[in-house]
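This part of the workshop introduces the protein records we will be handling. Getting from the letters to the tokens is the skill we practise here. An example says more than a description, so a record of this kind follows:
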Amino acid sequence: MLSIIERLTESGSLTLEGLSGELRVSPATIRRDLADLEDQQLLRRTHGGARLIEVGHDIEIELPVQLKDGQFREAKRLIARATARLIRPGRHVVAIGGGTTTTEVARLLSTRHDFTIVTNSLTTATQLAARPTLRVIMTGGVMRPHSHELVGVLAENTFQAINIGTAVLGVDGMTAVRGATTHDETEARTNGAMVGHAQRVIVVADGSKIGRVTLASVAGIDRIDDLVTDSSADVGELEAIRAAGTRVHIADSP
């Protein structure tokens, strides 16, 4: 299904026959995938094909977490490993937001001892649930189906009640001027509460997110201590981020 969205993003509309030929799957399979994507409001089916939903020239469609997981997988693994190395061992409170890269960071931290993990991500909590060496705190809140995150006042209150050593934040966009941004304003407020009560903030973002600005602001560049990205990130934007005082780490090897 990710391939369908990628092709639609490039062309705006596609035919059933064309998709079937390009992806080498049957028309029946394409019809099922198009129906699923339409249910998620990611496209609109047309007679004989599909088109993107019009959301405005400067607004991007937010992919569900199950589709995001397949994008830039190797880069995300490298970023997660580099991030885990930045977090010191020993007794420590780590807040982890939602996202496919942050989930991989959580997996790598799952063997640590004396860690308290605070998260509003159902995916991350599930990843850590069976680890006896960790203390896991799950926020309350309303679940966002796209990201499997708990957001809203209950989640914000949990983050505000805890003293966080390190916050690991996934974002949809990161620039020197706009800082960290995401697609949803409620999610942005919840992540902002996490950032506001952290001594150190690490943003994890693959290169496609660098230089991108999305709808809602999470944190200004002055609140972000470290950015971990990969070598595909825009070099000029990384230099601007460094100049603003954020440490930049390039994860380009295992």
